[in-house]
Design a protein that fits this description.
Length: 314
């Protein structure tokens, strides 16, 4: 016999509705997994060869030693100059350091760019100066190329075979000697006062002993070879002028203040070192003393003398 049990059937499932859009999602921000950072690549190391390091160290040491030597030498030079500056006045004047400059053209080599041939009064110093001013005396003239600035200020003075420019119509005398040289003196008036304004000249013939004696006051070479030249017993003290400047190895200019009122300007030429074998050396000198306010005029006379005998190029 079969028994049937009556049981109620389950209700059919209802369709799901109104499912939240964020169902199953969290309100937290989702962080993506970290990507492991790429390890930095190691740079290739540069290896310096040991011998290059040694060379660099040696170079630095040498450079340091060189600059140390230069600084030490510079300090010694400063100390030497300081000692020279504080030397006692009794110290003998020093001869000029001869530094020969490059030679230039002789035409107006001292800066006279404006020259002309001019007819100038000629005064012969071998005659009595009184005769220069006698009314009946026929004046003499000489044509000479001179700077235009000097044409109205100068006369030509003659002593033996030598000529030079000096202030117009000064008084003077001269002496000619083959042994002691040719000399002259000029003064602005008849007093012939050696302590006032004046002009002196010295010219030697070629080879006289006196040329070396005079030149030795300014040229170191003559003093160093005095015995060899035969003038060791006649050398005079170095000229006690304030400043000395060597233009060339054979030409020197100098200057000094005298009697607090006058300025002495001079130039001397001597070429003894070029004539040691033939002994045909020569010395020429012009010395001008004028009041200090006339310095420019004195320099013009010195420069005209240098140009006239082309002394820069001898």
């Amino acid at each position: 016999m079969v028994y049937y049990c009556c049981t109620s059937m389950p209700e059919p499932a209802q369709p799901v509705s109104n499912i939240p859009a964020n169902f199953g999602l969290s309100n937290q921000t989702i962080i993506p997994p970290e990507v492991p950072a790429e390890m930095p690549k190691k740079e290739k190391s540069v290896r310096i060869p040991p011998y290059l390091i040694v060379i660099a160290v040696v170079y630095i040491l040498v450079l340091y030693g060189f600059f140390g030597y230069v600084l030490l030498k510079k300090n010694n030079l400063k100390n030497s100059n300081a000692n020279t500056t504080t030397a006692q006045p009794s110290t003998s004047p020093a001869l000029p350091q001869i530094l020969e400059q490059a030679k230039t053209s002789s035409a107006s080599s001292r800066g006279f760019s404006d020259v002309e041939l001019s007819k100038l009064p000629l005064i012969d110093l071998t005659t009595n100066w009184i005769d220069w001013y006698e009314p009946e005396t026929q004046p003499q003239y000489m044509n000479m190329v001179v700077p235009k600035d000097l044409i109205q200020k100068v006369s030509v003075y003659k002593i033996g075979a030598f000529y030079y420019l000096a202030p117009s119509y000064w008084y003077g005398d001269g002496d000619i000697s083959t042994q002691f040289g040719t000399t002259s003196r000029l003064f602005p008036d008849k007093d012939f006062n050696e302590k006032r304004e004046r002009i002196l000249t010295f010219f030697s013939d070629k080879s006289p002993r006196e040329a070396l004696v005079v030149g030795a006051q300014f040229f170191p070479w003559i003093r160093e070879h005095a015995k060899e030249l035969g003038v060791g017993d006649a050398i005079l003290p170095v000229s006690s002028v304030a400043t000395v400047s060597a233009i060339t190895s054979h030409l020197v200019t100098y200057s000094s203040i005298e009697y607090d009122t006058y300025e002495l300007l001079g130039v001397i030429f001597c070429d003894a070192d070029k004539h040691l074998q033939d002994r045909q050396w020569q010395t020429m000198q012009l010395e001008v003393r004028l009041s200090r306010e006339k310095r420019s005029y004195g320099e013009q006379l010195i420069n005209a003398f240098i140009d006239q005998y082309d002394l820069k190029n001898k």
